[in-house]
From TrEMBL:
MF terms in GO: glucose-6-phosphate dehydrogenase activity; NADP binding
Enzyme Commission number: 1.1.1.49
Name listed for the protein in its UniProt record: Glucose-6-phosphate 1-dehydrogenase
Binding site for NADP(+): G17, G18, T19, G20, D21, L22, A23, R24, R51, K148
Domain Glucose-6-phosphate dehydrogenase NAD-binding: 14-187
Gene name for this UniProt entry: zwf
Pfam families, per the entry: G6PD_C, G6PD_N
Function noted in UniProt: Catalyzes the oxidation of glucose 6-phosphate to 6-phosphogluconolactone.
Reactions accelerated catalytically: D-glucose 6-phosphate + NADP(+) = 6-phospho-D-glucono-1,5-lactone + NADPH + H(+)
One cellular component term from this protein's GO annotations in UniProt: cytosol
Signal sequence interval, chain numbering: none
Pathway the protein takes part in: Carbohydrate degradation; pentose phosphate pathway; D-ribulose 5-phosphate from D-glucose 6-phosphate (oxidative stage): step 1/3
Gene3D superfamilies found in the cross-reference section: Dihydrodipicolinate Reductase, domain 2, NAD(P)-binding Rossmann-like Domain
Listed InterPro entries: G6P_DH, G6P_DH_AS, G6P_DH_C, G6P_DH_NAD-bd, NAD(P)-bd_dom_sf
Length: 484
């Protein structure tokens, strides 16, 4: 299968925080891969902007090193890398002062798409937005990209939305969640709405429950101070897992249109039922084999912040009432994996002598690693001796379909940055969507803070706290095994 590359209009993309970790690891390598694919027009330019006082040549050298480190050698060559680096510029700029803004204005060209990537702390969003207009750099056709965290609660999210709205319209603001740029996540909509096979079954009459898992093997060391003010609920559930839940549970939009899709996602968030305290399990990874535990990594020996959380969530609407959604995410777990598992109900009556009474069909959408889709179905076990049933997978690996090593699958940032240039907001969060998610999450967080609950300790390299297993066991269900 060969993917089509559709060029975008020529652009000037300014990366505020252009020397930062995100720019080095994701933004610049993603832009290089789009350049290599022929999607980035020759006239386009990328302008790094940061407080660091370096020359254009030094910035280009940094970008070359980053691309060499984060793009596989099989996907780059010296000639194309040199050609890409020639598109880079740099401006030393003070986000809260006056330095560099006139120079940045002189870099911007007429007739180009103007996009500004705010790869900086949210506390700087307002200052940058104000100066872009004050110095005549941004206009009514410009676009801004803002990274999470988009607030830490409903109050701060509303304040941030209001700050950006003073200078940009909602149609100009692209709130990025890289999970929505993953090929498999986008395929959720294709699976549901382009195949008559699934959509008639996509409701509580046929689906027993849904599991959403985002497991990581890494600790929080290196970003422990930030993480301890956030935790798994704010860092992962309120945004990444919420978006996955919305794509699974949303009603069919009238068209694949940005606002039509986001209208349906918003309805899901507003239909979420309050989560009971007994349907929440929080955990912290403990020390093991000389490796630090969460509290050591966070630098807070009395921390009550969770590095793991599992929740049972209900949706109060006609399609999903009675079907629980189980969400879990955590650090220092057994394996790095992200997946969605849809468990269909068992047949109401089994005509076979199956001791398990017939096992359910399970549709598994793997987001990482080894992106793909797996459907477990029941078949007859080969051989004589009666009708013995066994469960087998119908497996589609994106790596096999799109490339021998999977590296032809675009990184999420590649797709999302190009969507910004196109002016397509379908895969970006709208302001009211962000606020609705916080309105649901805030009471959950306030509840355990009021009760002064401490997270359960769990051993690194496991699936999390034992209490999380009981969250499903008491309902007669069990978590899928966490494995790569």
């Amino acid at each position: 299968m060969v993917s089509r590359t559709i060029p975008v209009d020529p652009f000037d993309l300014v990366i505020f925080g252009g020397t930062g970790d995100l720019a080095r690891r994701k933004i610049l390598p993603s832009l290089y891969r789009r350049f290599l694919a022929g999607q980035m027009p020759e006239e386009s330019r990328i302008i790094g902007a940061a407080r660091t006082e370096i020359s254009v040549e030094e910035y280009r050298a940094m970008a070359r090193d980053s691309i060499t480190e984060f793009v596989p050698s099989s996907k780059r060559d010296a000639a194309s890398l040199t050609a890409f680096i020639d598109h880079l510029r740099y401006v030393a700029i003070d986000a809260t002062g006056t330095q560099g803004w006139q120079e940045l204005r002189e870099e911007m060209r007429e007739g180009m798409v103007h996009a500004f990537y705010f790869s900086v702390a949210p506390s700087l969003f307002g200052a940058i937005a104000e100066r872009l207009h004050e110095h005549g750099i941004a206009d009514g056709n410009s676009r801004i990209v803002v990274e999470k965290p988009f607030g830490k609660d409903l109050k701060t999210a509303r304040a941030l939305n209001a700050t950006l709205a003073e200078h940009f319209t909602e149609q100009q603001i692209y709130r990025i969640d890289h999970y929505l740029g993953k090929e498999t996540v986008q395929n959720l909509m294709a699976i549901r709405f382009a195949n008559i096979l699934f959509e008639p079954l996509w409701k509580t009459e046929y689906i027993d429950h849904v599991q959403i898992t985002v497991a990581e093997t890494v600790a929080v060391d290196g970003r422990g101070a930030y993480y301890d003010t956030s935790g798994a609920m704010r860092d992962m559930v309120q945004n990444h897992l919420m978006q996955l839940l919305c794509l699974i549970a949303m009603e069919p939009p009238y068209h694949f249109d940005p606002d039509a899709v986001r209208d349906e996602k918003l309805k899901v968030i507003r239909a979420l039922e309050p989560v009971r305290p007994e349907d929440i399990v929080r955990g912290q990874y403990a020390p093991k084999n000389g490796k630090a535990g969460y509290r050591d990594d966070a630098g807070n020996p009395d921390s009550r912040t969770e590095s793991y959380i599992a929740l049972k969530v209900g949706i109060a609407n006609w399609r999903w009432k009675g079907t629980p959604f189980y969400l879990r995410t955590g650090k220092r777990l057994r394996a790095r994996t992200s997946e969605i598992a849809i468990y269909f109900r068992r047949p109401p009556h089994s005509i076979f002598d199956d001791p398990e009474g017939g096992r359910e069909n399970v549709l598994v959408i793997r987001l990482q690693p080894n992106e793909g889709i797996n459907l477990k179905v029941m078949i007859k076990e080969p051989g004589p001796g009666g009708m013995r049933l066994t469960q087998v997978p119908l497996d589609m690996s994106f790596a096999q379909a799109l490339g021998p090593d999977g590296s032809d699958i675009p990184d999420a940032y590649e797709r999302l940055i190009m969507d910004v240039i196109r002016g397509n907001q379908t895969l970006f969060m709208r302001g009211d969507e962000v606020e609705a998610a916080w309105a649901w999450a805030d009471p959950i967080i306030e509840g355990w803070e009021t009760r002064q609950e401490r997270p359960h300790a769990y051993e690194p390299g496991t699936s999390g706290p034992e209490d999380a297993l009981m969250l499903l066991h008491r309902d007669g269900r069990r978590w899928r095994e966490i494995k790569e």
